[in-house]
Structure formats: C-alpha cells, structure tokens
Design brief:
Number of strands: 4
Radius of gyration: 12 Å
Number of helices: 3
Strand content: 15-25%
Oligomer: single chain
Largest sheet: 4 strands, parallel
Strand order of the largest sheet: 3-2-1-4
C-alpha cells in the first residue's frame, strides 16, 4: 500500500498535492498534518481513501512533538513526504 504524508494538507499546495497524488499515482493512504481538522476531514472524504488526520501546528514545539510521536509509534513505510506547512505574515 502506498502512503503519502502531507504537512499543510488542509489548503493551498498541500491540498492540491493530495488530489494530484491520488489521481495521478493512485496513492492508497495519506497522513494529513495541519491545523484545520474539518478541512482535512473534508478532503479525506473527497478522496475516498484511508486518511489519518493529525491536527497539529508545526510552528509550535507541541505540534512537532505530536507528529514525531505518531511517526515513532506507527513507524510507517512512507513513499512520499510533501512538506507544505507554512505561515504568512
């Protein structure tokens, strides 16, 4: 099973990567990491594949630790890592 992890998955480039990876490469499972749970769940519903939603703010130490803990506990075989988390001022 192919797995893609996308940070910043709730909007913008991260969201578009999710749709494109599903359409073009047939990715079967995603991990979405972003601050907006509702937006990530909507995208997951649209994609119709297994999605693990991790609500975390990666600009904060606590958010990074939550993501890190999930990686350590699950030890996933990651095929694609898309880092799109960011913020503007």
């Amino acid at each position: 099973m192919s797995l893609a992890i996308i940070t910043g998955a709730s909007s913008g480039i991260g969201k578009e990567f999710a749709y494109q990876l599903k359409e073009k490469l047939g990715i079967e499972e995603f991990w979405f990491i972003a601050r907006s749970t509702d937006k990530m769940r909507k995208i997951a519903e649209d994609l119709g594949v297994k999605v693990t939603v991790i609500t975390a703010d990666l600009t904060k130490k606590e958010g990074i630790e939550e993501y890190r803990s999930k990686l350590l506990s699950e030890r996933p075989q990651v095929d694609f890592l898309i880092n799109c988390a960011g913020f503007g001022v």
